[in-house]
Structure formats: structure tokens, C-alpha cells
């Protein structure tokens, strides 16, 4: 029986748990806008994942940041080599934690929230990658353009922007 749906109707962790409980082998493919994610299972165990700008556990962190997207589980495929060593529950808990940690940042990347530069900007020191990210966001670039240009995973970009916010350079409005 094919498994298809939308992440707006089923959270990613629910889908992963169904595949795990059923001890299924195959590929969970998630299409979120123009980003495509793949999570591979062998007998219900997550063995590999890929995202537009990351692989392995980082790819799973990236897909947990997606709020919507179509998913489909496809069986009878050739599985890639195992790159993920953690058990599924640890991966799911880590993904939920990433989603919560980056919730405000996702709003910036999705256009639901805007960032402004703080009046204390001259007191903040940033590294090169942080400056490039700030510049791209203030220029109005979308998340895909930023990730591709800076060769960052979605999660890495969220962590960097979160650190910049903690430094006080930017504010979310």
C-alpha cells in the first residue's frame, strides 16, 4: 500500500514512526517547494538521507525544518550505503529539537518575519560567513539562493543566523 501525503497533515516524525513500526524498506521522498529530500530505510531503520545541500544526519535536520511539502514512500529500490548510525528515535528527537531551536529563523527564511539591523550594530563582530549571510538576507535573497550561494545546509544557515541574533546585530520583527 503506497504511503503519500503532505507534511501539513502529518508531521515528519509521525511518518518516520509509521515506517519504522512497519519495518519497511525503501525511500521516503519529500518535495518542499523546489527542495527535494530523501530518507532511506532498511527494515524500518534509517540508513541514509540526502537533501539539496547536505547528506546523512544533517539532511534529516534540514528536512525537519520544512513546514509543508508532499511526501511519498517508495519501496523496491536499491538502497545507498549506510551513513547514519543513530537509532531512529534519537534521530527523531534530534529533528524535533532542531525544529524548535530554529522556529523563529524559519519565519525569516519563509518571509513570515523580517529582520532589521540593531542600532548597536557597530559593536558586533562577525566572521566572514556570518557577514555574507546577513548581506544576502538584507538584499532580500530567498533561502534557496542563500544556501546555494554560501554552500550551507538549511540547518547550518539557521544556526548561523541564530548566533547572529544572539550577538544582537539583528532583530526579528
Characterization of this structure:
With 173 residues, the protein is α+β, with helices and mostly antiparallel strands. It has two domains: 3-101, no CATH class; 103-172, no CATH class. The protein contains seven helices and eight strands. It has helices at 12-21, 57-64, 88-101, 103-110, 128-138, 143-150, 154-167; strands at residues 3-6, 26-32, 35-42, 45-51, 54-55, 70-74, 115-117, 170-172. Strands 1-6-2-3-4-5 form a six-stranded antiparallel beta sheet. The chain has a two-stranded antiparallel sheet with strand order 7-8. Helix 1 packs antiparallel against helix 3, helix 2 (57-64) packs across helix 3 (88-101) and helix 5 packs across helix 7.
Please outline the helices and strands:
Elements: E1 3-6, H1 12-21, E2 26-32, E3 35-42, E4 45-51, E5 54-55, H2 57-64, E6 70-74, H3 88-101, H4 103-110, E7 115-117, H5 128-138, H6 143-150, H7 154-167, E8 170-172
Antiparallel strand pairs: 1-6, 2-3, 2-6, 3-4, 4-5, 7-8
Helix pairs in contact: 1-3, 2-3, 5-7
Query: Shape, please?
Result: elongated
Record the strand order, biggest sheet: 1-6-2-3-4-5
Q: If helices are DSSP runs of H or I spanning 4 or more residues, what is the number of helices?
A: 7
Largest sheet at a glance?
6 strands, antiparallel
- Structural class, by secondary structure, is alpha+beta
How many domains comprise the coordinates? Answer: 2
Counting DSSP E segments of at least 2 residues, the number of strands comes to 8
Report Rg. Answer: 17 Å
SSE order:
EHEEEEHEHHEHHHE
What share of the residues lie within helices? 40-55%
The average pLDDT score comes to 89
First-residue to last-residue Cα separation: 45 Å
- Uncertain runs are none
Amino acid at each position: 500500500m503506497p504511503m503519500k501525503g503532505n507534511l501539513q497533515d502529518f508531521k515528519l516524525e509521525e511518518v518516520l514512526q509509521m515506517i519504522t513500526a512497519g519495518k519497511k524498506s525503501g525511500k521516503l521522498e519529500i518535495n518542499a517547494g523546489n527542495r527535494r529530500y530523501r530518507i532511506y530505510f532498511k527494515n524500518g531503520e534509517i540508513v541514509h538521507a540526502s537533501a539539496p545541500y547536505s547528506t546523512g544526519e544533517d539532511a534529516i535536520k534540514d528536512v525537519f525544518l520544512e513546514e509543508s511539502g508532499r511526501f511519498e514512500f517508495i519501496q523496491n529500490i536499491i538502497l545507498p550505503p549506510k551513513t547514519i548510525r543513530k537509532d531512529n528515535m534519537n534521530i527523531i528527537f534530534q529533528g524535533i529539537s532542531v525544529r524548535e531551536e530554529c522556529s523563529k529563523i524559519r519565519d525569516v527564511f519563509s518571509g513570515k518575519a523580517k529582520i532589521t539591523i540593531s542600532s548597536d550594530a557597530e559593536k558586533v563582530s562577525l566572521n566572514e560567513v556570518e557577514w555574507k549571510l546577513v548581506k544576502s538576507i538584507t538584499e532580500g535573497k530567498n533561502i534557496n539562493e542563500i544556501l546555494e550561494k554560501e554552500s550551507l545546509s538549511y540547518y547550518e544557515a539557521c544556526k548561523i543566523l541564530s548566533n547572529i541574533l544572539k550577538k544582537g546585530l539583528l532583530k526579528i520583527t
